[in-house]
Design a protein that fits this description.
Structural class: alpha+beta
Shape: elongated
Low-confidence stretches: none
Radius of gyration: 33 Å
Number of helices: 12
Largest sheet: 7 strands, antiparallel
Strand order of the largest sheet: 1-2-3-4-5-17-18
């Protein structure tokens, strides 16, 4: 309705809410405005597309903070069956909690006396004071005990029985920020060395990873053995401390975090060690540099856990993760025929209040999850017909099957079975786009030559029918050149010859002339020559530009961008230099440099445009800036595109000159 998408939902599931005509989003040229029903707000999402119109990334302006519950371990633990409304039962949905390791403070000999006080660090509550206005939120109504109750339980680790615990996993995206909070306690004044330590190994760590609830990695079907194989030699030895040779009185016990990428390989991590004997350490405050505002390096997963490789007891409490999502909602890569490359594509974890983005390949809408079990056909709506990216075939007959040199192909084909060279954005004709460009170029050149001829000979333009005829002949023959951009030389010549016959006849008809057999033969011959010549020129330009040095390709792409955007009223002020927020190896501020900082001389609109040639990608700094939400328009020039333009320009110029034969005196 006017670009606004509404949805009604009714089902028999008592756990879901039915609704009628709820606004989902409003589309706009750069993306959509998404309605968030939980707070009745509007959130702006932007879709970054490549040169084919494929949606490659969805960015959002929405800023949110997700507060996962702290592992307070308080209340009655229900192993199975009916669940008591307790804090620990809610927390076990997020953390791997072994109830046999939950320990009362009063059972720890060294805990008291003296009496718990703030001064001796042992008096604290079932929260980490985050956020200050409502610490440790989002528990069920009526939960027992409550967040403001003093802590009574801790989680025990001893390397002789359980080296890890409280495992936690969430999906994260590059650009997200993480805070990790928690407390630890131990009592020890003796020596800690290899003799009284037990080494944690990679397989045991990966086994513990799979015990985390709501496990996105486990849902992929990976085993601990497979994860071990993937990460052998990648997880630093600093995460395995049992045999590190140190001699100290501080246990080898830590709050740890590890990032895994989409291929489940180690992508970074660190740890915060326990503190001072007989003191409760607040890790988030004491080790702020390690645990506050941790940047997520890659799309993938965050694994948080506590560990102890010393052969005596260490206790942890109030472990908590705070997730601050960045701007990236989705990053998608495609195979040539449109199937998503699932292994390197990624989506942020989204709540139930998120209106799913269905725009994907060629910018078209994916029709999926239409069945009651949330499965579906997974076909794209290409407007003219539907397309199955799994088979690379349309599901209905091409409405233009007898046009564009497609007669020899299946009426269900996509992009003439060659998506590297052609594109078919609406399901009607793989060459329609290049044909349209050829028609425009041919028409402009054909009509322009006639106008120039009249101005040169007469000083004014008086014979507009001749201008219209020359332009029409250029449109017809130029379109044919575009249609046959990927065809053989013989086919191109034949089609161009036939098109010039039609164009010449139309030209003469506009001027009130008839067409003779001689005209037909001449038009066919001239058209064939022009088609073959245009084809050879186009191939030469395509091959020549493809063989340029990378530097020359870059300069050529920048020049083409300035011409294209200059025609729209934009003027370039040079490079746009943006700080990434990081540092170079020499300690200076890292910068991303984009080719054009442009301003529209008519509207004042400012845009940043990056010129790319063929398949060239972004630099590391450019990718960082874009992932952080900086808006950049990508203008991609291709060798094939320049070749097609040269082909159309050659044919258009020839047709414009040839049209002079058909001008009525």
């Amino acid at each position: 309705m006017g670009g606004a998408i509404y949805e009604s939902k009714t089902d028999n599931n008592a756990a879901t809410v039915d609704y009628t005509d709820r606004l989902q989003f409003i589309g706009h040229e750069e993306g959509r405005i998404r309605f968030k029903s939980e707070n009745s707000s509007l959130q702006y999402d932007y879709m970054l597309k490549d040169h084919l119109g494929n949606v490659r990334m969805v960015l959002t302006e929405e800023q949110q903070t997700i507060y996962y519950p702290a592992a307070t371990l308080e209340g009655t633990y229900s192993p199975t069956g009916a669940q008591v409304n307790s804090m620990v039962n809610h927390e076990k949905r997020f953390y791997s909690i072994d109830n046999t390791k939950v320990t009362l403070e009063t059972s720890i000999t060294s805990w008291s006396p003296p009496e718990e006080t703030v001064a001796n660090t042992k008096l604290y509550y079932n929260h980490n004071n985050i956020p200050p206005a409502l610490p440790n939120p989002n528990y069920p109504i009526g939960v027992v005990p409550v967040q403001t109750t003093g802590s009574a339980n801790l989680y025990k680790l001893n390397a002789t029985s359980n080296k890890t615990g409280l495992e936690f996993i969430i999906k994260v995206m590059a650009g997200d920020k993480i805070d990790i909070l928690g407390k630890s306690y131990f009592s020890n004044t003796g020596t800690v060395n290899n003799a009284n330590s037990t080494l944690l190994d990679l397989f045991t760590l990966m086994t513990s990873l799979l015990t985390a609830p709501a496990n996105g990695i486990g849902a992929k079907g990976l085993s601990a053995s497979q994860l071990t194989t993937l990460n052998t030699g990648m997880v630093p030895s600093s995460f395995f401390r049992g045999a590190n040779g140190e001699t100290t009185t501080i246990p080898k016990a830590y709050i740890n975090y590890i990032f895994l990428d989409e291929q489940f390989k180690f992508a970074g991590g660190s740890a915060s060690r326990v503190g001072t004997n007989d003191q409760v350490k607040d890790h988030w405050i004491t080790d702020a540099a390690l645990l506050q505002n941790i940047p997520v390096p890659k799309n993938g997963y965050l694994f948080v856990y506590v560990s102890n490789e010393s052969n005596f007891e260490v206790f942890f409490d109030n472990l908590q993760v705070i997730h601050k999502p960045g701007p990236i909602l989705e990053e998608t890569h495609y195979y040539p025929f449109g199937l998503t490359m699932a292994g390197i594509s990624s989506q942020a974890a989204k709540g139930t209040d998120y209106a799913e983005n269905k725009k994907g390949f060629n910018g078209n809408e994916l029709q999926s999850k239409e069945f009651s079990d949330l499965s579906g056909l997974a076909w794209y709506d290409f407007n003219a017909r539907t397309y199955d990216p799994q088979t690379g075939r349309f599901m209905q007959i091409d409405p233009l099957a007898d046009e564009g040199e497609q007669e020899s192909l299946s009426p269900y084909h996509f992009s003439e079975n060659n998506p590297i060279r052609y594109n078919d954005p609406d399901g009607r004709c793989a060459n329609c786009a290049t044909a349209g460009i050829g028609a425009v170029v041919g028409g402009l050149i054909g009509g322009g030559i006639e106008i120039a001829s009249q101005l040169y000979n007469n000083g004014s333009v008086s014979n507009w029918s001749a201008v219209g005829g020359a332009a029409l002949q250029g449109v017809v023959t130029g379109a044919a050149a575009g249609f046959t951009g990927g065809a053989s030389l013989f086919t191109t010549a034949a089609v161009s010859g036939g098109a010039n016959v039609v164009g010449g006849a139309a030209n003469r008809a506009i001027q009130g002339q008839g067409t003779t057999l001689t005209n037909v033969v001449t038009d066919a011959t001239v058209g064939a020559v022009l088609g073959a010549g245009g084809k050879m020129v186009g191939n030469a330009v395509s091959n020549g530009t493809n063989n340029l040095s990378n530097s020359a390709k870059g300069k050529l792409g920048e020049a083409v961008t300035e011409i294209k955007y200059g025609a729209q009223g934009y003027k370039s002020a040079g490079n746009d230099v943006v700080k990434t927020g990081g540092k170079t190896v020499t300690g200076r501020q890292a910068e991303a440099r984009f080719d054009h900082k442009m301003t529209n001389v008519f509207t004042g609109k400012k845009i940043t445009v990056e010129s790319k040639f063929n398949t060239s990608g972004f630099t590391k700094n450019q990718s960082t800036v874009i992932k952080n939400g900086y808006n950049v328009v990508v203008d991609r020039t291709t060798s094939n595109g320049l070749g097609n333009a040269a082909n159309a320009a050659t044919v258009g110029t020839g047709v414009g000159v040839d049209a002079q034969r058909n001008k009525r005196p």
